[in-house]
Fold each of these.
Amino acid sequence: MNNEISYFTGVLGIYIRWCTWQRIGYLVVVGFFSGLMVVQTEIADALIRGEIGLTWQPWVATYSSVISFIIVSPFLIYSCELWPFGKAHVIKTTIKLALLYIPITLCFITIMLILRNSIHLMIDGTLFDSWDLIDRYIYEFPKALTIYLIFIFVTYTKINYDHSQREQLNAANLQNELHTIRMQTLRSQLQPHFLFNTLNLISSTVYQDADKADSIIARLGDLLRYSLASEQKPFVTFKEELQAMQSYLEISQLRFDERMALEIAISPATKLVLIPTMLLQPLLENAVKYGIEPSNEIGKIILESTLKNGLLEIKITNPLRQRTQQQESFGIGLQNTKDRLKLLYQEQASVSLESNHHDQITLTLILPAQYLENTHE
């Protein structure tokens, strides 16, 4: 008994929630055009039978059926939503829907007959027909089966479609969350890595040259401020990134003095292109680590950028001191850069290393050229 009360309470609740103006309007439109096609058929059949005097009767007969089914349809929709139709429930749900056909159809016929007879009484003072009421129910009962089955099919199709859309949306949201977490993890790995190396540099110079250590600390502060300010910005312009990296390069030059030469050739067309924040830092760090640090000879680091066919190309060239180590062990900085670009651009970005004349190695980054809105040089 409690189950029946719970079911009918749920039916009433879903009926109230379901009957919004938008849904009612949708059913009215669908019912109107469906009924219109049926009415035309009824009128044509009547003319063939010679019932030329029929005018409003086919309209009453058809639209009383349409309105009646609209009234009972929320109960059927609620039942379809309540009873899943998957492989594990197909037999049980089929039995339930077969049994539900009885009360739904009885309600549908009852409402339909009330509407038909009421309208006939108001128009010409007669009943819809002279049939016995039981005969009319017996006649109408199997006729409703086709509409019932079509409605169930459409309803379950809509339910499955909505469920599929929600799953796709949830999967997309989950993928975005995982993507964000992954990006944050990569960035959080880069910052301690760079900070550790810089602090070691400060430690090694503070007692030998206090002024140099002060300069390094000042530039480190500039770089950390940039990193913190861009914490919530996944992308910055190439110009902003380059300005911040000047601090890093100056730190390196303070460390190696005349051993490190620097050449920067930046195309003006690339300055407003958006790139991932802190993209250049680990790459420049690798250039210093593998190109300058291992040798007492003078080495030059070259940073270039060009714009070709909608692609930003960045090249970082440094002396090739330890070819095997440089090519086989990229370290956390370069590996994280590859991972970041893979997450952000999929196959549209690339990272490559190429040795030149056996004494230099060039790292080439190629990214899609993207800009802020209304900002393009």
Note: The longest strand covers residues 299-308.
Amino acid sequence: MIGAIIVFSGVILDYLKGSGVITIRYEMTMPAVALYLLLQLIAIAKDFAEGRMELIRLNQSLDEEVALQTKQLKEKNEQLEALVWQDGLTGIANRRYFNEMVANQFDHAKQQQQKWSLIMIDIDEFKQYNDYYGHVAGDQLLKVFVDIINKILPPNVLFARYGGEEFVLITQDDQAMSLAEELRQRIEHANLEHLGRDLKRVTASFGVVTYTNEETVEELLHKADENLYMAKRSGRNRVYAS
């Protein structure tokens, strides 16, 4: 608008000069046009700069949105991955994850000729606990039971829920028997009430097996299960190994 006024003024001045009304030394139309063009260039440059800044802001906003979406997607993937291997009640590894890890451990041990141990754990007379207190209380007991064990487990020990009230440990430590006995004592000394049985408190039985030259994972698991059965048959609240 200003440029147009300047050009119009220059034209008027040149007209008045040509009519002899005013006397000026220079032609005004061309400088006015040049000034108009300069103002137009400045306006275009300003608009371009503002547009560029807006584009930068949009790109930054887009980058932030992409980063946020990527972070949220990563979190969801991690949550889904956790659901695949995590026991929903206790938060420890589930049987599916255990089966994968025990197979890997077994193959590695066979190749490297390493010893490692399995510890199977079963809460004694858990059915009677559920019958006496109800399944909600039974679920709570499982959580407390897991917490007791988790607090004293050494590093690099896989702790998984095998099914129901049965749990399993994989340890590369050759002190599996002493670990199982420590866990048994901790559970017994926690004095968790169990009025549905004669002993009146919660205990657990343990079956321990150390890999030597078993041919298959199933054979090793079967031995651990047999040892757990022997611990229960011997009166429960026992650690049995062969």
Note: Confidence is low (pLDDT under 50) at residues 13-17.
